[in-house]
Amino acid sequence: SAVNKIQHLEGGIIEQIMVRDGDLVEQGQVLIRLKADGAQAELSQTETRLGNLQLEAERYRALAEGREPDFTTLMVQYPELAQNQDEIYRIQTELDANQSEILEVQIKERNAELAQLSEQEATLRKSVDLLSQEVTMRRSLYEQGLNSKVLFLNIQRELNEAQGNLSGVIAEKARARETIAEANLRLNELEKTQREEAITELGRLGGEIAQAREALRKLRDRVDRLEIIAPTRGYIKGLQFTTIGGVIAPAQVVMELVPVDDVLIAETRISTEDIGHVHLGQPVTVKVSAFDFIRYGGINGELVSISASTFVDEDGRPYYKGKVALEADAVGEGASAQKIIPGMTVQADIQTGERTLLQYLLKPVYVSLDQAFSER
Question: Is pTM, for the whole model, over 0.70?
Answer without folding.
Answer: no
